[in-house]
Amino acid sequence: MTINELKQAIANEKPRSAWDKGKKLYALELIDELAEAIEGGYFDPANLADRAALKAQMLNGAGSWSQYSYGGSALIYDGDIAERLCSPSEYKRSREGERRPNSREEWLDVQARALFQAANMIIRLSGAGRAQK
Predict the structure, then answer these.
(1) 55 CB burial (10 A radius; 0-12, 13-18, 19+)
(2) Domain range for residue 73?
(3) What is the maximum span of the chain, computed from C-alpha positions, in angstroms?
(4) Alpha helices in 60-127 (DSSP H)
């Protein structure tokens, strides 16, 4: 699968919730970063079928999605994260991201979870998940 085919497959995903819409945006951003890495010669397009290589490239040097999120590789402001991942009523209830999303997480943790799911969507659609089984 080429990067353009992968981008089209993600674009064809039908989000059913604000969370899914946000996750799809993260996936498209990760694909754009992959495309830049391929164009720059930092990532071999043949590795799109290699789950480990694909995940490592998407993490861009971070050890985990939490580290990626807290390291500033994605959105950095709570309000921006809340706006992307919440429905309008949830966004309002969180006071535009001023309130914590729940008692166990910060907004950057929620973003890390969405990034993890977006990366898994990319791996699933690229076929890399099947290649390693």
Answers:
(1) middle
(2) 3-131
(3) 45
(4) 65-70, 78-85, 88-93, 107-126
| Residue at token pair 């946000």 | 22
Mean pLDDT of the region 84-107: 96
Instruction: Give the integer Cα–Cα distance in Å for 90 and 77.
Output: 17
> CB within 8 A of 6, min separation 6: which ones?
31, 48, 122, 125, 126
* Separation between Cα atoms, residue 91 and residue 83, nearest integer Å: 6
Q: pTM, whole model, 2 decimals?
A: 0.93
Query: Pick from 86, 89, 107, 108: which is nearest to 98 by CA?
Result: 107
CA-to-CA distance for 17 and 87, rounded, in angstroms?
Answer: 8
Count of the separate structural domains present in the chain: 1
- Cα torsion 97, 101, 106, 108: sign: negative
- Going from the C-alpha of 84 to that of each of 5, 62, 97, 106, 118, the distances in angstroms are 25, 22, 10, 15, 13
Q: Which amino acid is at 87?
A: S
Quick: pLDDT tens for 31-56. Answer: 999 999 999 999 999 999 999 999 99
